[in-house]
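Trying the structure run again after the queue cleared.
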Amino acid sequence: MTKNASLLLLLHQPFRITDSTQFSVDSIDTLFQGHFKKPGQESSNKAIFERIAQNSYIPTGQYLLDYIQKNSDFKVNFTFSGTFLEQCLIYPEYGSQVLDIFKKLVQTGNVGVAGENYYHGVSHMYSWSEFGAQINLQRKLIKDLFGVWPTFFRNTENKFNNEIAEFIRLIGFETMGAPGISRYINKEEKLEIKTIERPRFDRDETWAAISNNPNEFTARYLSIAPINHALSDIVFFLKKFKGEASKKHLQDIINDNAVGFHLLFNDFEVLGEHSRDDGIDILEVFTEFITICKNEGVNFVNITDIPEYANFESKKYNIPFDVSSGNAEQNLESWRGNFLQEKAFVSLTYLHDKAKKLIPYNTPYSQKLLESYRKLTTSDHFYYLADIPGENGLVHEMFSPYRNRQDAYTNYEFALKFVSKEIDKFLASVQ
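Done. Tokens:
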């Protein structure tokens, strides 16, 4: 029996904030160079991008291109944040090679590209119009770089609720990825492509964003593709993929009758960057995974084809509250789970109200200031503020460029105030 699956890999890099407690910050440019120093590590946005390009983006991208050329039935999909693509452009020594490989991948016809929030941000938590604007920025950049217009949407950290889903349908998407949350669906039902319960919108701001939909197309249904976390984890957490026992477990998950469609999702950097110290050839392991899937009858499909597999007669996918795939609890604790994060979030909303005043001005510096505000909406800044015990907490500390969460908060508030003052000076100059 043929089983269908889509493999979706995220490529994202934030614009980290320079640690102002250790480095001089005297301009917007130096603010977002991301210079930092903590025990055992000193780096910057450029250095991190170039290291990962060498360890992951370039070798893994070339591997996938070679694999597709030898296996024309294999398909893979990417979701690019706008900040990742922007760094490809501003760090051309390696970025140009990265872009060249991914353009060739898209040109094979075997690669799908998802829509995404340009800044991988949290704007959907406070402004529909800003959320829509950031999505449209990413779609336009994807069209400019790769010549395709995304119809599948993946939200930051797969954050999802009914209202977000309906908004995504209204701005022209046909499909959306979501956390695979079996406990919120009847257990006897398959994990399959479903459609969404539709909430009603009464906010003027929402309709303003929808009216700016550049595609001028609204799907009758939004197909929801839940992530199969169990299958994704086997491949992307190498310790789970050793020996015959793990391979048998993989086969059992693939053949689970309660799964009608597999959406496999993870960070692209797992294929190279995050596994470089494990003493394991991750691409060899990945090849073995693909081979086992094919032997078990898995057909890898493009994300643009997912609506073909939707069960429009099934019970609707109905999640009226916020969920995400960013932690085991599938909640928003990693971004809105403590007092520092809430203080930072409120400060960001204040900056948003001020940044909106820049929109009517079309000068290079007003655009730079608007982009600076939007770089501060990136979810990573809130991720660095998380206070989570155990293994998940260690992961947060590993990715943070700061010595501790208090330093992270101090630098984020510094950046908010720095950008706010620059906006004030600009607005005063044009009045």
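Residues 183-190 have pLDDT under 50 and may be disordered. Worth checking whether this holds up in the mutant runs.
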